[in-house]
Amino acid sequence: MMSTRSPYFTSLVTVALLLVLLGAGGWAYPGFLSEQVLFNLLIDNAFLLVIAVGMSFVIISGGIDLSVGSVLALTTMISAWLLQTWHWPPLLVIAISLALGAGFGAAMGALIHYFKLQPFIVTLAGMFLARGLCYLISINSITIDDPMFVAISQAQLPVLGGFISPGALIALLTLAAAIYVAHCTPFGRAIYAVGGNEQSALMMGLRVARTKVLIYAFSGFCAALAGVLFSFYMLSGYGLHAQGTELDAIAAVVIGGTLLSGGYGYVAGALSGVLVLGAIQTLIAFDGTLSSWWTKIVIGGLLFIFCVVQRLMAIGAAKK
Amino acid sequence: MTKLMQHPLFRPLAALAILLLIDLIMIPGFFHLEIKDGHLYGSLIDIANRAAPLVLAALGMTLVIATRGIDISVGATVAISGTVAAMLIGGTMVMENGAPVYVANTPMVWALCAAMGAALLCGAWNGLLVAGLGLQPIVATLILMVAGRGLAQLLTDGQIVTVYYQPFFFLGSGYLFGLPFSIFIVAAVFTVTALLMRKTALGLFIQSVGINPVAARLAGLKTAVLIFFVYVFCSACAGLAGLMISANIKSADANNAGLLLELDAILAVTLGGTSLAGGKFSLAGSVIGALIIQTLTYTIYSIGLPPEVNMVVKSVVVFLVCLSQSAEFKNMWRRVFPVRVKGNA
Description:
The complex is a heterodimer. Chain A is mainly alpha-helical. Chain A contains 14 helices and 4 strands. In chain A, the strands form 2 sheets. Chain A has a two-stranded antiparallel sheet. Chain A has a two-stranded antiparallel ribbon with strand order 2-3. The longest helix of chain A has 27 residues, at 208-234. Chain B has one domain (39-304): ABC transporter involved in vitamin B12 uptake, BtuC. Chain B is built from 15 helices and 8 strands. In chain B, a hairpin with a 2-residue loop joins strand 3 (92-96) and strand 4. The longest helix of chain B is centred in the C-terminal third of the chain and has 26 residues, at 223-248. Chain B is globular. The chains are: A mainly alpha, B mainly alpha. Chains A and B meet through helix 6, helix 12 and helix 14 of A and helix 6, helix 12, helix 14 and helix 15 of B.
């Protein structure tokens, strides 16, 4: 087994990397280290943080959820459609979207658990299904002009001389709730147990079926919540929203120090992972001469370094 | 009859047959073939031609999946090889004695070699990460999937590179003996791979790695070399598919070429009856799986359904195929419908 110090080590490496990135930015570009730039990191990546939190649960349980980006898009689409075409009250629309996301996730979780299907292929099909349903509603982007959505999208909550958006606040609250659930409740311990060894978890008398279905339901819920935040942010519903977000979320979780083999990691790592990705994007935006594809190349490089370091540490631990 | 139904290729073939039957009823003149200008034309030829890149990607993916792996960087490899080829060939039209003559920047052979070389490098990188470092295949190939497309965009500066060089187009839209040239490429790759798998022990080795990697290693197989080989092979197939795609659209689009191709390839392999859990694999099944996907797309377009339905139908097909492969589902089905067991095996 790993020594108790090593899990903190990977998480701390990410935090250190984040500080180095921010420091480099502050050194190279005047104005980079202003409070608002840092708050904007949170505001622009609020939806990604929420998705990454859900993804952490799935990955810690040893699974994977490729459908989150599409569920996000579907949520924006359904919200926009219900608001604009049917003029339903916004709170009801949000509640319905969240319930649909959780239901979608639960259905996939049930398929994965009860029929022993691979999470990869089931959520892949879920990804196609959700994306396809978006286009069935409309192939065009639907603009949202509901007063409540517009008000939330323009609201600024003053914090320490700067401001954050309500979306960022919701994302942070979600993260806090998820950390509590993962580390302080029986359900959280069951997730780690299932990810460590499903057979053993079953023999210990844990309710594996319920846990697994709930994990995917939670991930679906997070994706739908991210969809709501995204529609606050973009004020539109569109089937092409957030393409490839599932990969960003997986990358953020891995960079945050969670092992993809399951059973290992911290939900809080999602925050540092997302912020690292956000900081890279901001650096590239500040530089101005670098093109957007450098983001992909740098993220790929970071993923490589983190995977190799994790792997070498695991090999080192096994030899002890 | 039961023996026939238990053949591993029965279900994919039946699915393809049902699709073709729907086409026969819904689309007038679907099976009509005619010869125009010495080329064979018709819906069936069209489907086979358009499915060619997917078939190639699926063939490579089959071997990777047989070793319990997965390669999600196929689309990125397609973008890289297509971009390298298009940039090296480039090509300009020169007027010579009043007739347009196309000149390539680099001799086409070298350009194609360079493109395939780039694809092989991608494969070697994946193979090194999976076989050498022991990373999980999905993570290892995720790295190239994210960075690879970025690299291709870096090469082209995010622009679409147009090719003006007639011989290159032959790869994507040429005809040989009245049939599209791409069909011959696919047939050649399929035959070589099938012979390698059937006539040498390679197929057996790959299967044993997929069934139990530890046992295979203890039995004296060089599992690392085998796994390295399948990733290189998969990328080579993807590289060839990339050449075909860029020759077909006469340009290289680093942003969109091969986007989501890896998912279609995985889908084709699953439809063909190869389990994602590794082990037994069927190359012919994957070819049929790819044909099913292309026929499905063609059918949806021709019937007049909005193209967006395609994704929903595809996902429903995946769910059904996965369920039909699940032992738990079969047991449940037997409990609910005890009499009708035979009809729904």
